[in-house]
UniProtKB/TrEMBL annotation:
Residues 1-153 form the Peptidase M14 domain. Pfam families: Peptidase_M14. Keywords: Carboxypeptidase, Glycoprotein, Hydrolase, Metal-binding, Metalloprotease, Protease, Zinc. Belongs to the peptidase M14 family. It comes from Chordeiles acutipennis. One of its GO terms (biological process) is peptide metabolic process. This is CBPZ Carboxypeptidase.
Length: 187
């Protein structure tokens, strides 16, 4: 997952351990500097290629999750070309991360590959470092989109995997035909 010789910071190791210990299913990483929602993979399948579409086996689900956020965001969903240069207007405000730019060690890729958690990255505004007086507006632009995204946790299959006596089975592998990405049951 990380490049050879890459040093993992103690706080990163702690978050990785935490993510493996709790069965999260959905998360979002909030960034600044653009208005777009990206989804895995963020690291290109061909490391020497920049801006190369690199879908996961769950491409359709990730696009749906990203659209749920983007469509509920008043500025990301605005079709005008005025915002942040309008780079993502024609794409509906979403893009595969590696197609935008490829990088290794991203949280969304880690979550997808090593936990049951599906994560998107939300670029919440054009300013990389917004001023304090801009934060209230940014919050209001993102509040309903965050709520809409969180409601997506109710999509998909839910249930309890149990043995013949009704006892839950921990770490049971669940496969979906046609999707080459298994998940496991929680505690």
């Amino acid at each position: 997952f990380f490049s050879p010789g890459f040093q993992v910071a103690p706080e990163t190791k702690a978050v990785m351990k935490w993510l493996r210990s709790i069965p999260f299913v959905l998360s979002a990483s909030l960034h600044g500097g653009e208005l777009v929602v990206t989804y895995p993979y963020d690291y290109s399948r061909h490391p020497m290629e920049e801006k190369m579409f690199s879908p996961t086996p769950d491409e359709k689900m990730f696009k749906m999750l990203a659209k749920a956020y983007a469509d509920a965001h008043p500025v990301i969903s605005d079709r005008s070309e005025v915002r942040c240069g309008g780079n993502f207007v024609k794409r509906g405000g979403i893009i595969n991360g590696a197609e935008w730019y490829s990088f290794t060690g991203g949280m969304a890729d880690f979550n997808y590959l090593h936990t049951n958690c599906f994560e998107v990255t939300v670029e919440v505004g054009c300013e990389k470092f917004p001023l304090e007086e801009e934060l209230f507006t940014i919050w209001h632009e993102n509040r309903d989109a965050l709520l809409n995204y969180m409601e997506m946790v109710h999509r998909g299959i839910k249930g309890i995997v149990s043995d013949k006596f009704g006892n839950p089975i921990k770490n049971a592998r669940i496969s979906v035909r046609g999707i080459q990405h298994d998940i496991t049951t929680g505690n």
